[in-house]
Write a structure and sequence with these properties.
Elements: H1 2-15, E1 19-30, E2 36-49, E3 52-60, E4 63-64, H2 67-83, H3 87-107, E5 108-118, E6 121-130, H4 139-145, E7 147-154, E8 160-167, E9 171-173, E10 178-180, E11 185-192, E12 198-211, E13 214-229
Antiparallel strand pairs: 1-2, 1-13, 2-3, 3-4, 5-6, 6-7, 7-8, 8-11, 9-10, 10-12, 11-12, 12-13
Helix pairs in contact: 1-3, 3-4
Length: 242
Amino acid sequence: MKDRVLETERKSAKEKERYLCEVETETDELDGNGKLKKHTTEQSEEFYVNGQEIDHTVSKDGKPLSADAAKKELERVNKQVRKYSDPKQVKKAQQEEEKQTELFLKALRYTNGRRDYREGRAVVSYDLSGDPAFHPKSIEEKFAHALTGRAQIDEESGELTDLRVSTDHDIRILGFVGTVKKGFQFHLSQKRRPDGVWMLDLVEGNGFGRALFLNRGVRFRVKTNHCRLYNVEATSTTSSPQ
């Protein structure tokens, strides 16, 4: 399973380079009682260079970036493009991504495998829970090991189509200073484009934590509203991101 997941991840990243997507991010900051303290939105363009995702923010809270902010954002994006035009930087990023994927595969058990159907396609569903034989040390390992939920994988392509998980116990971070509370929820969904490319459709989550003796909550939603083909290898074209 591990080898197929990693191979699918590499192939998928390469295929996504044909697309430019519009993404909207909503974030809510909550107080300890779940009351809304702050709501923010951000609109961005998402594209890939040598399999590496790059996000270009175009507006915040419904307003275009100021001329100065837009200039700085474009400089940041161009810096990312130059970075991932370097094969050495791409290899380094890929190795880090694969390391994180392997971490989750090792920390979790995949049980009760069964065939389901999602949007007319056969998927294999697994129940997820922390592997008792795995002993987490880092924050990332502790978070992965605390997850419980369900994953759906497209049977034909091996792509992760839907992931719904939550933490089944508190996760202490930074010694006694911070804690991610039990019940932090996370949901990820991907959709298949007409040409067979799988693109991220939705990422959302919510939960509470405690830091410096204060309880705080967060709720977020990242929605891909529109993807279009833009490069010379695509069957239809639009202008490349600036």
